[in-house]
Queue: 3 jobs
Job 1
Amino acid sequence: MLSCCNYSRSAKNVTLFDDLNIVIETDYIEWTKRVELSQDGSVKLCSNVHEQPQTFTYYEVLFVHEPDCTFLIYHNLSLIDAKEVYQYCKSKLNELKRYFPGNKFVVSENLRLIMESLRINSNWTVTHLCARLGFDWYFTDNQSITTEMINAQVEPDMYTPLHLAVKNFLTPTIKLILSKSPNLNLVNSKQQSVLHYAAVSTQEIVVLILNQPKTFDRILMRDIKGCTALHMACYVQKFDIVFEFLKFGLTVRMLTLSPPNSRSISRTMSETKPSMNVVVTFTDEDFDDIDCQDIYTGGCPLHWAKHRRLMEKLITYSFPLNTRNANGDTPLHVVSKRLRLKCMLSLLCAGANVNANNIFGNTPLHHSVKENDLVVPQTLIVFDANINARNYNNESVRHVAAKACKSTGNEAILYLLTAIGAKRCPPTDEQNLCNLGCSYNGDFEGNICEKLFGVDQKYDRLYKEFLFSDIIEQKLKETSKKMGKENRVNLLCLDGGGIKGLVSIQILKEVARHLKNPINDYFKWYAGTSTGSFICAFLSMGYSLNQILSIYFRLKEKVLSGARPYSSDLLESLIQNEFGKDVKMEDLLTKYDKYVLIPSALANRRPMKLHLFRSFPSVQELFEASNDESLQEQLLPNHDKDLPNYKKYENINIEVWKACRASGAAPTYFRAYEDFLDGVMTSNNPTMDALSEFTHRNLALKSLKRFDECHELDLVLSVGTGKGLIEESDMVDIDSYGLRNIRQFRTLINLLVYEICQTEQHIVERSEAFCVVSKVPFFRLNSFLSDLMEIDEQQDYRIINCLWETKRFMYFRRKQVKVLVNYLENRTQNLPTRSNDKGNNKKSTILDLSSSIGTKCFQNKLKSDNK
């Protein structure tokens, strides 16, 4: 064991070799006893080799501040180590000596800091040391600092002086270095730029660095782990710095923080779109709508939005909807866990992947069934979440829900899955982890809502088998040769009902799930009243059902708000954007090859008159164009000409949006459109009127010898908007006029309104009878709902519940759905060949808002950077 030597100063003994790097002032007498091995300016390498009595030899590096003031800055038993320290510190200390003050205590502290820094990297230059230690006097008093010195990088860390100043949060030093125009694009050995270090420093520092020229060039720079500066700010939970990045004005690409280990993601096709270069602007209100607890995993602002207003705004910037954060969660995963229903609806309507897996294989539905909330999993199911999805632990959604029932006690969540066919765990799974709600031999299906007891018995059949089974069977047996000679078409009819049109869309989605092509490929004739006219027009123009669903939810938010009557201007603006201002009814035939009927009610006369907007010429127009007076004489007399203000109303030359607006002019909900009221007033279920028009057109064409233009009706599909229980009403028996009978008059008015809006019972039976006689299969799809929503329903949870019940109804009648699907697949003529993607025929303009303003901001930002 080596004995220690002591340095004494002011009667204080310091034991050496406990700390080889200790910096202390030595007595003049003490160090003059040493043997000087080497000297360079104020730095000496000495030894005690001639000291008497000598117990062992050691070596020291000394710094001579003044003739009577010397500091021991290093000592060691190894000459090699001592020489190494002497070599790397001598030039640096000699250069810095002239900046040292006269105060010995300050000099001692400076020496200690310098030697500590050199132990980290002995290759650092004087500029590096002063930047790391905040020696601002070096940068203010030294006029000889060159660009090369400011941008110097040395092995092994490759830091620049500015890297070190930012890393140590030295704001005054940073300002001094920035005044000398350093190169901010330089990166260290970890590929980290100065901006990376600023992102984990302070708000003041990051503002300084962001406001330097050409910052945009550095925002997307990634380190060796694939992290951008914004990644790092998120991961270390520097939320104030993240907000500074957002205030700065970054593009969609810069704000899309895909997981660091997927560096190639920033160069995928989706991120090379022009929309990725749009600058995103954030307001103070936007910052209030950001949830900081979701920032630390990265992702993009879609992950962080906690209110629908901000979510809708971000979606218009075309952020990639399925961006992953560090956990592999998409924005839909996050809002599912946080139970943010409105944000979820915005994402789903915009096209987010409802079945995306995170790094554990969990889908959003896996997350939502763990929570004590019914509406969120209901929503995901309505938007076609895979109810049998399994995560990487081989746990199905039903398995997770069954386990969660025990902790939450909400067994109704399990019923949401079982009622639409979620499968139990197979016998091969570890059954000790299962319970009665998911095991293959269990018998628990969850708790059913009281309103749903006995609902199955109220579900109508999709078609009456005793009427149509033989007809369907006979048509399916027809030979392909006979089928090829016919000009067969299918007819789709949609009822009116305001926002309840969502039920019609959900019914069609459940049919379309089983079809090989988009559903609009299977129908050539369409008839729709009020809300049904919107859906028919959208389908005929190539919109997918998911896009139409999205439009309806947006219509609910944008238009059905406030007090009745709602803004007709907002409604007209929305449908003009969707259909186009100049697209006319005849374009639906000439461009899309669809025969479309839209009923409305001419209300400037008594009685009101059914008016049909068509995409094809009416019988009267066909006869008038033929110039055959004998045929024209067979038409009914036009009594409209007797009206004082008679005018001829357009048929095929009217714009589509105007026809739909006229058909949807529901009294007390919207203003009348010119002379038209809602088509519900005359034809709420347009099936019979469509069949009449179809028949009359065929007969007219045959009388004109235009046989090749005639169509043969092959199937009629009539879709409702949901129906509820038949309610008891007071009997109306008015024996006299007077105030005492006001209630009876009110009851009578209600009965008349209900009868005008009737779409079931005798209305359907007439169409059935017509089709039976014509030997045309007739399907009527209308869901019974335990809690029927209003035609202007604004509560999301009620709408979602109705759509889930519709899905349940279609699952319950799945056997008849298969009959319909089989018939459509085997009998529909001229089906186009399509890819597996059945949903994106036409993009909604609502989801594709103009980004020219953001692009202009981006261009201006680049110009200012270049300056």
Job 2
Amino acid sequence: MQGPGPSLKNGVDLQLQSAFYDQNWSTVIRLAEKRAKMTSDSYYEVLKVCAESQLDDPVAKYAAVTALHTYVKDGTVVKDADGIDLLEWATRNLLEEDDFPLTLGPLCVRTAKASSKNRNQMTRCLESCLLHWDLVSAQQIAAIADKSFPQVRAFLFWNIAITHLLAAENDSHPPPRSIQKAEEICLLYEVVGAHGTAADFAKLLDSAIFNPVAQLKQGHKEPFVYTAKKFHSEKNWQNLYIICRDCLSIPDDRGELTLQACDWDTWRLFVTAAGEIRNTDKQIIATVQELLLRSSTAADSKPIYKRNVMLARVSASFQLLESDGPDAVDFSPSSLRLRELVKYINNQASNPSCFDDVRLFAEQLDAAGIDYLAYHHFLSSEQSDDVPELRKHILALKLQYFAATCPQTYNTATATSGEPLSRQTRFKSVYSASMKLHRYIATTSSYSSQLIKDIQSEVALVAAFCLIGLADQLPSSFPTTESAQHHVQALLLLQQQLNSSPKHSQISLVLVQLHLRLASAPEALAIWDTLAIKRTIMDSLAPLFYDRLSTVAPGMMSPLTNEGWQLVSSIKTHYETSLKMRMPRRLIDAFTDGSYSSVLTVPEYVEKLRVSCTRALSLVESVRSERLLGLSDTDFFTETRDGTSMNEIIDYGSFPSWNHSATPAVYQRLRLGPAPSNVRAHLSLLAEALQQTLSYTPPSFYKVPLAGSVADQKYVIEYLGQIANSFSKFLPGAASRCTESELPYFEVASLLASLVPLCADRVTGLNELVAQLTGAITASLESQRGYLAAFTSKSDIGNTMSLFQSLHRIVLLRDTAVAVKNASQWIVSYKEKQKERDRSGQSNLPKDVVAQIKALGVAADEALKQCRTWIMQLTKDTKSGGVIEGNIKAFVYGGEEGKLLKGVVTDSTVFDLVGSWRKSLAGWQGVHWL
């Protein structure tokens, strides 16, 4: 691309090129018409029409669209791809994406047919159809290319891949063709698996060439992986067992196992399948044991596989063998499964991934077995600078933390004292031991090495997790002084550790959540920036930072600041770039490279990205932030309808997971509320639509005539009715997907969307209906105010911290009150205008109704004033002067846990936190309270 449009084709004279790139459209029209008469080349006719469409004349603007429809209707052939490019450019903003298959797509097919020996023209037409996801036209062009260039093997598989994609939409069956390369074999499996019968797939598995075992012998593992996943999803345990057994049993020339499929995923599937069918064949357990023995012997000479085989032995002992009594007796392992688990731990204790390997198995142990692992297996030993020994100490701490979160160990006796221990006592014990090890590591001679600092970072995480466990908070929990104290202690400990180990990803992710939970958004942003999240994973990781950000730091996303503009732009640009066309350019690259697995996965990825919860909620955050700051916004997410199912995706895989799966993970405890979901995304978009509709005021220069005013009011009434109808579809069952503040906000928004049309239409029994609705709305406002008022009963550091953790609730109360006030004002304004139009008074609202509506406005005003007072109180409590610094230090170092932080957490780290609060509160000063 150059100049204002596409490149003109070769052979166009310089005078015409200069006029085109200078946007001198009148000259282009004149010269193109002249060249068309002289050369009889239809390209110049197309160029002339496209130039006319660039004129300011409203009629001429649609010249290219008119010509395009005429070409399609009359069967005209545009003889070269350059003409197609011109038409596509000239109509780019005048045609919908769905119009392409009916207009430019057929023209591309005709051009390809007319230029069947011109490979360049044909591939350009094919690329255009693929980028606009016109599979019908693309399939026709691919078939022409395959037929016209039989010597080009790539065209054959382009044709197959596109036919498969088209068949997936139309539920038809693509024809089979010859296959050679690995990517082509993967495509064959995809096609047969998606469109073939069970017999077809069985025939493929019986093929001497294409079956997974034969392919694995050639070094191609993908067919086996696809087959195993397919059987697992279908719960076809017998065939899954057979395919895994055969692939794990492949021998080399000497008869020894090659271990080509000896990864943990394969063993896991194999043992799982064997466990499901072990009662149908008594030889299965013996077969598994024999294969494990042979693999163990082979793995001795290939240490890279030893861990996988040992882990498979542990898995088999848990899934294939019946439990033979308690797991531990007299502080010693008694069951076979615990003995196998202990063998694995002894061998892999110095491996950083050891705990993650054994956690799910440890969950299946009884209380005695868990207690043995946590408190008796690792006998206390002298501290050492040796890295393997330090790893063992960390593993012991993780197991003790794990035991504290296990339901089996609640109120059970420990192996050492025999006395029952509460969860809190266990957390305190692990925290104390962790801080002792943390201090020791800081004194070692090798502390300057990054490896030792990374080990210390893991110890700091264990200690911080214990503090978070002591806080015992969920997003729905009532903030207490003690819980706030533990959260601040955990934050400062990890922040101090991050200063020693910058860019430690696990600490950074936990800190981002802690800072947002405690309203320290500027520090959260600084840490988030160091993570440098790549575009390819932005959709799954962005909610960790962006979700509900505007409710704790409205000023952070302000477009009026460079920082806020960059923050919003970073995620908005990702979607704008990725979704600029129906399909991305890399789809063409995948075809060119013969990467057919990518060809099949890219379309699914892009369509999920288009309806991503992250995309919807990031827009909501941006719009809400601007609305809070009194700024107008014109962005609308128009690709959703009530029937659209938003793609729910968020990746917590990078967070440490050291707790029992039956208890909430740390990331679940620290986040501001439930993860992004289809229901909340729809409700949030509906709430923003309601806010924008009720708060809209026409520009001052726009003088609305009486007739126009009536039309505007009818539009608002009808649109709010649609919003109310949509709310009714998503509110039932929304409680588990929203915070305790979001749900009443959405409920009030739904009631307001129903209240306005009711008052406008003057339905029968209006007084009673309005009384019920206004009563529910007022009760919701009072309930939210009453909850927050508990934090202002006295002014101390504990209440200040609790109020910081409640900013999300304040914003939702503010939004609820603003919606109520705007609805009240709209109804009163509508009543006044009706009164002006109808002097008879027959269309007036009853006085009781008007009084109730005005009372809503008064209640909303009181709530807004209260919200503003709370923010002013926080600003006052954190003002400069050293008082807050002294209070927060006393707060952090208080209690048994706080004493252990002295000498570890520095004053500068505490002051940085206070500075972050002040910076965040400065952004609140721009919030409009009406």
Job 3
Amino acid sequence: MQPWQRPAQGLCLRCALRAPTTLTGRSFSGSAHQNRARITALNRPLDQLNFDWAGGRKGKNDQKKGKDLKPWKTQGTGTKIRKVTHVTFDERFQSALLESSDVVRKELEQTKTELALWDNFFTSIVQACKSSLIDDGDEAHFGQRFTLRRTFGKMGREGIVDYLRRQYRNHKLDTAFSSTATKTDSLADFRYPAEWYPVARSMQRKIHLHVGPTNSGKTYHALQRLEKAKSGFYGGPLRLLAHEIYSRLNKKGISCALITGDEVRVPESGPVKVYSNTVEMVPIGQEVEVGVIDEIQMIADPHRGWAWTRAVLGCQAQELHLCGEERAVPLIRRLVSLMGDTLEIHNYKRLNPLKTMASSLKGDIRRLEKGDCIVAFSRVGIHSLKQEIEKTTGRRAAIVYGSLPAEIRAQQADLFNDPNNDYDFLVASDAIGMGLNLSCKRIIFESVIKRLPTGIQRLSISEVKQIGGRAGRYRSAAQSSNSTNVNEKENVGLVTCLDEADLPYIRAAMMAEAEPLDAAGILPLDSVIDSYSNMFPPDTPFGYIYQRLERVSRTDSPFFMCKIQDTEATFGLLDNIQGLNVIDKMVFMSAPLRATDPVMARVIKAFAECVGQQKSGRLLDIPELDLEILDKPVSGDDKEYLRSLEALHRSLILYLWLGYRFGGVFTDRTLATHAKEMAEVKMDRTLTEFSANSKLRKQALRKKRIKGAKDKFLANTEPTGVTDTISDIPELEDTLSDEDNLEAEYADSVLKGNRVRVPVPSAQHASVAIP
């Protein structure tokens, strides 16, 4: 039992004789700042239980009396321990379950057969809720109990009602199709995925495995070989990485095409030599000389691992380079032996040293230094932390999190990396773990706890090492090998945290070795799913067919079945659309969508209706797309404005993605690309021009006006005979302050072609000459 889980009650004999343990000074659910953000921002069904994030759940009587339940109480020794208030969660859950049962039962056909079938089903549900994995050993029942309780915690009674409807439908269909189970389930044998790719298996491939920590140059050396190849491909986990490799190779004169799910760029001059892809788009049907697959440890990802397995087993590359963490070595050895290939392992060391600091920031944001990156794990917490930092320090903070477009994340990282502006800090999520080059001195964990759909979870060792490895000024392998006078002491990366309670775990995680990977993810081929669905009547819900296929599938070590994200919500949408065949539904299942988001759910349904009912797929004919948000003025104070832009951007990404699969339906790819770029511009302005600090906000607006007036002035002025100055522009007469006059004086001198040295607010001195 962990110290933070220990209740304030009598000790058993074992605990009484246990050696004393130093107790943490805060709750398990996160730091004080994160708790404040949760209290004010989160609106979840658990709030109905009067849960106090800082110190347990409050009873109704305590609320009426105005009692303040403190999260801690002190024993005689003065040690703080967690105060636990009894809450009848089980009683609330049981009551909600019975009420949900009555709701669903009233919806059924009131026949004896139907009601008897329901009673048998609900009896099994009740039995599952009473089960215990330790006492009964029934994993299926225990898993159902866990899912029900988690659903109630996340969605309340309505969530249980939806769950019971789906499960009863599956139970009813299982009963109807029990006689044909043996014939249909024979197609669910996925024990030998290596046999799915006979062409690749017939080749004698040479596999190079490049392993090492973050910033060790492993990917750089693999790309060096790709640049020399006559043909090849790169497969990465992010569009951002695919864009980076595409730009890098074309700058070196290598003909490279970009192929991601929503974008295709093929050079017009000459044949394509190299393809840069997201890993899902790796061309496994094309024989090449060299292939590079990045972040190979993601082969064990529970949702996307199938794409790495497909690329490793199926690509027809004479020489395949895999780059990633050392924990992937045992699994890759097994896969290589299954395919009959040869393996060579290359080990790399970090280019700059990495250390864990001896102390934390003690919760004091004023201890932040220029170049610090603070890592948090919720969108609300990130925005709150950014506001608190800017108010406290008076300096700007860039921001990066997963739901921001890749282009905006890269722009925010560039603002942070540029030493000649006032962006001293970066507030980010675990999205910085890959795909961004950051020049940060310290990585500071705001918390080691993150909230997932399955509940609260502590960061794994690999996650701590991946994020912490971003500390230290970014230096490529080429820069490291060419540099002879590098001051390693100045380039030491430092890792710490905001609260002292998290430091022991971070220190232990940074020193520990992550557990080796033991299985690779797979998904059944589309042809198998199509054949399996043909075994059922045409009106059988596709959600039931796919879930049954998952349930009866057989896999063998070292493979496991991946879970497609948001499957239940997506099935609920697609099964109600007339005209979609199985292949169409599988395309939507593979799309980058979030069916649990209400806004995205409406968009997905509209897109699916365009395909199934042959409606117009022109961008302006789909009212569910909130294109009107692009006409509204930029607002940095309204968080819903930024959220709406993010939702629109995701919808446009989905439109472009579907446009390459249903080209005859979604025809406005050019217009969608333009709208996507407009949304990115507005998001960039929202993040850069607005700040919680009024002084910083005014400075940003002044700089915007000066730049706009300067650009307009230069556009309307002949290159020769310039006599006007920036200060003469009417738009700036009422906006220039003393600092702005310095910038205007500097700009005037630049326009006149002089070399000047005048103080500028963003830097101590500047020297520029315009020929």
